[in-house]
Predict the structure.
Amino acid sequence: MGFDLVLFGATGDLAWRKLMPALFQAFRHGSLPEGGRILCVGRDDLGDERYRALIHSRFENVELSKRPSAEEFARFASLLHYLRMDLSRPADYQRLADALAERDAATVVMYLATAPSLFTTVCEQIAAVGLNGPRTRVVLEKPLGHDLASNQAINAALRSVLREEQVFRIDHYLGKPSVQNLLALRFGNALFEPLWRRETIANIQITIAEELGVESRGAFYDQTGALRDMVQNHALQLLCAIGMEPPINAGSQAIRDEKLKVLQSLKPWTAETLGQHVVRGQYRAGTAQGQPAPGYLQEKGVDPGSRTETFVALRTEICNWRWAGVPFYIRTGKRLAGRDARIVVNFRPVPHPIFRCALSDANRLVINLQPKDGLELHLLAQDAAQRAEPALAPAHLNLDFDQRFGAQRVGAYERLLLDVIAGRLNLFVRSDEQEQAWRWVEPILQHWRSESRGPHGYAAGSWGPAAASALIARDGFCWSEEV
Ligand code: BG6
């Protein structure tokens, strides 16, 4: 009967900010399957009513159109039940097993919105009370480890009690409609495929820029840094989507097999490329949204002598027949000039220019992921305003997916939660993919540890350190905002 969703960490930040609002949206739109129950697990001594009241108060921070009316909340709240557990006490898992046995739901989803240090313990304990049977699915939030060895250890612990198909590793970027749309664009249209290769493409740039700093997460972030926080997962997943071969079908195995091949084809690092093709930065004081903003070292929870990077830019290649020699640039950072995630595909210029054209750039496809969701195709056209001599001028085709599909599309966490309940693995990361991504970033981490110089400083509110522009300029290119 229905599903039971066990939410470990139900009083934590992720549950308040993302999971409860997403579950409510799914409930409001009637997409949560019938007969569901949400068992909210926390350490605090709260009963159902107090927990529901807390959730209700948190909805006041949600944007108005996504807030429940009193009547809607009452119906939603009837799904929520609170279970107090100390996750380090084996006896408490027996109480969980008893609570689940009351209903014997067809699907049991265990969502671990907890500190990663608890992942292994929770999985072992649910297995110890027999809750790892085929109806169970376990959802894990990143970070899954802080390097290859720790990631492999977590995956080995998971494998000892669960089958791979029962494990749903979240990379919330895969839940974003704009990111799912990458595969739709590439493999739902015949138009791009003939152009999607080294003969026509000069370089590809993946940017995930954030305007915010580390906010209240200074202590966590200082142990993590941008490479682990953004590149190892979100940026590499975007690289896979843009670089992968067409899968044989839209099933999770076929898609994940192709993404794995991209990760396996990334150019191995050498001492020379580690020195020249990777730039790390750290923000200094500057501005954010027109206001003065402190530097990273002044943020709460951050070690004042920290060398943790808040910015990474790097150049890599996918070493296969399609992409050999085409540079892929990845860039991500906090406290940059704006919130902007986009992929820019720069095409090669015409082989023999017959028109006068002072423009250094040629055709460009800009895939805006957020905050805008759309596609721009940059072309050159006859400059009809020129009187002296015929010339070319840039002109854009602009497709706005928010306008086309409405801004009320299914949010990332709502999509991912619904997929877990339905057992769809497409948008979750398989262990071999994740390990391969760690394997590839590991030499960068080692190189940084051995380097005497720390990250380059950059002013808050800028596009990152000058060294990032120098990195791309060495190939004769520039970042898309510098065009
Ligand atoms: C998270 C990172 O995975 O992604 C955060 O831990 C980052 O540091 C966030 O801010 C960005 O997500 P989004 O959806 O706001 O682009």
